[in-house]
Specification:
By secondary structure, the protein is of the alpha+beta class. It has nine helices and eleven strands. Bound molecules: zinc ion (ZN). The site of zinc ion has 7 residues, from loops.
């Protein structure tokens, strides 16, 4: 089953279901501009429903989405995913090459062949969270760009053919642009939090001034701790793309505090900092500048 996971606010920005509370919203459908209601119940995946009637494009199903943004399993079957995990555990951090890999994994470009044997590619390290944040950025940026080119070409093709298809392809390109704008709008932040003698870290994104966000974070934490000290370790502009991969990469260090899910307790904070601080500053260029302006 496919669900609409975002709507557009009065400023024309894309807002995802995780950013709003359940019930009526001031958001509209990116396709038909009719109003949306957030459905955040306990059974179905959280999603937006048209307040009155679902439009044709949303009924039709799956929309284009940013590669490697919120899904890191590369559509592997459960069996292949397990196999990749086993191979990574065995060979990932060694110099040993693999003698053979299943055809399907090779086809998905998870491994590359050298005269010594097969090695994990950067893409192959994604499902097992083995790729550094800086290399993740490089890989994801090139995939985002090639998907953009594919969608742009589809528009050109539809123009040449004519008919109803053009409208659909233009809408798909628009929704993709909005998703790109959304990740560029965000600043990634990394916090050190000392609370009642514990040292925790928090990753997150905001499109507002960091100070405003800190106030909210402190209020959240005050429900659980009394002595709270928050230190902003760093911020990265236009880096909304990294947040979910970071959560995937460091899942095992996630530290749940009631309903709060973005906190971590690391054994080796220096290696996490190294991972984050090795990221190049995001400079907007080419199509990104157009999308941003
Ligand atoms: Zn609609």
């Amino acid at each position: 089953m496919w669900y609409l996971k975002f709507g557009v606010n009065p400023q024309g920005e894309l807002i995802t279901i995780s950013e709003v509370s359940s019930g009526k919203t001031n958001l509209v459908c990116p396709f038909c501009s009719r109003s949306l209601t957030a459905k955040k119940g306990k059974i179905k995946q959280h999603h937006f429903a048209h307040t009155v009637e679902t439009c044709l494009r949303v009924r039709k199903g799956k929309l284009p989405s940013l590669p490697l943004y919120d899904n890191f399993h590369l559509q592997l079957s459960a069996k292949h995913f397990q196999l990749v995990k086993d191979l990574w555990r065995e060979y990932g951090n060694t110099n040993y090459a693999l003698v053979t890999v299943p055809f399907e994994l090779n086809l998905k470009k998870l491994f590359e062949w050298t005269p010594q044997g097969y090695y994990f590619t950067d893409l192959g390290k994604i499902p097992v969270a083995g790729l550094s944040l800086s290399k993740f950025n490089t890989l994801q940026e090139s995939l985002i760009l090639s998907e953009l080119n594919r969608l742009t070409n589809s528009v050109e093709m539809a123009k040449a053919i004519g008919g109803e298809l053009l409208e659909e392809k233009l809408a798909d390109l628009k929704i993709y642009h909005l998703q790109q704008r959304r990740i560029l709008r965000f600043t990634l932040y990394f916090l050190e939090i000392k609370c009642d003698g514990k040292t925790l870290h928090k990753i997150g994104v905001t499109s507002r001034k960091i100070g405003l966000r800190l106030g909210e974070i402190k209020r959240d934490l005050q429900q659980h701790f009394s002595n709270i000290n928050i230190n902003v370790l760093n911020t990265w502009q236009h880096r909304g793309n990294v947040e979910l991969y970071f959560k995937h990469r460091y899942k095992q260090f996630n530290y749940r505090i009631g309903k709060l899910t973005e906190y971590y307790k690391f054994h080796d904070i220096e290696s996490v900092k190294h991972d984050l601080y090795s990221m190049q500053p995001k400079i907007l260029e080419g199509q990104e500048l157009e999308i941003w302006s």
